[in-house]
From TrEMBL:
Entry keyword Membrane: yes
Localization per record: Cell membrane
Organism from which the protein derives: Rubneribacter badeniensis
Lineage summary: Bacteria, Bacillati, Actinomycetota, Coriobacteriia, Eggerthellales
UniProt name for this protein: Multidrug transporter MatE
Molecular-function GO terms, alphabetical: antiporter activity; xenobiotic transmembrane transporter activity
Coiled coil: none
GO CC terms of this entry: plasma membrane
PANTHER family: MULTIDRUG EXPORT PROTEIN MEPA (PTHR43823:SF3), SPORULATION PROTEIN YKVU (PTHR43823)
Superkingdom classification of source: Bacteria
Amino acid sequence: MDDPLIEPEPAERELGTAPVKSLFARYTAITLAGMLAQMAMVVLEGLIIGNGLGPLGLASVTVILPLELLNLALGGALGMGTAAAAGRRLGSGDAAGAQRVFTQGFWLAAYTLVALSATIALFAPYIATLLGATPDIHDDVTAFIRLLMCFYPFCTLGQLLCALLRTDEKPSLASALAVIASAMSLAWLYVCVYVLNLGFAATGAYYGMTTGLWFLAILRFQFSKRSSFRVTLSGMRLSRDVCGAIIWQGLPLFLVQAASLLYTVVINNYLGSLGGDGDLAAFAVINGYVVYLLNMLCLSATYGLQPIASFNCGARRHDRLRELVRTSMVGSFSLLTAACALAIAFATPISAFFAGDDPDLVALTASHFLPLLVCAPFGFLAQIASAYFQAVGRERTSIVLGVCRYLLFAIPLIATMANAFGIRGVWWAQPPADLLAAALAIALCAREMARLKREEADLDLHGERPLHETPSDDVARPPEM
């Protein structure tokens, strides 16, 4: 049996009572505060690698980026899947069920990542080749992969635990861990590159520490009596039903990251064959740093909306879900539009910051900001919408939205436009892909809003909504159980 935990009643939880706009803004802002530390870390990482290791270091970054995306894919999928399943049970008042989901998700992630890390380390030379490593950097990339795999299980478990901290209404603690991890990781990167002169391969430990240190969240769950969750030994024996539900609910976010991983591998190979190390380095700056930072802004919004959506789905608060869809889509688009506009406006100084004293590389990099970023805010709408549908258990819709930007649209367009326009077509394939993804996201969200309105009306018609409660309440209350 799982240990009994002190669990607030659903009616006491702010996820079901606080105004949606302010709740989403606060959870997103708190998450963003932690992400800002990650963003600063990524910026300084680029400065250290670009200036300390040069163009070959930057080329290595874009080659190993798919492994970082795989880390985010697994951690995000298992974390969001576990958090969504647990959050919906909390919203419906099933605290014991939520605890069981948590402990099963923890052990599922542990088993999966230990096996995967060992496999990747064993076949590291072949994986380096598959990822597009050129002969000049192949040995360093291979050593990097093997060192990173030592940290991989902790990276995924750390992301899972921080996702559950937000469901446990402790988003500030998750952000604090991100700040601590960023500071410690950067200290190691600086020492490894400038003091010990260990080269690129040793930065595998840096990449592992960035999210691996989030595993310290385990202390909150194991030693705080106010936590809703705890890792128990009884959960080591996995349940097919519970693990299947976690995997299915986490699958959309995994496919979002997996599609991005595949996109990176595809474009790396096109840039390497049609261009060279300079094009790979330019793409490393834009995709590995600028787009990565934009993706972290987007993730702040998705992490902010997930606990609200899953809890209120369990509580059948369709009015709050409708408001959340509107708020998250409009707010996220506005934030990302401003960020992309600034990046395009300052493309040259940003490129110089990362590329160091190589004027040709700076000019090449700056020239490609426009095609990759001009429509990016539209493309990110599909990711926001995918996170919402994942949180409320609409996994098929979430999967379609999660993969559409890169897998369904960008990769086919890259292949088509590369054949027609060469290297220029590779760079300019992204804007039409972003616009197509946005059109699909908006259409599916509009259909979801109409569905929620119908179901809300049905609840009122059949008297299932408490008589004192109306959809227009300034402070929404969950339905009585």
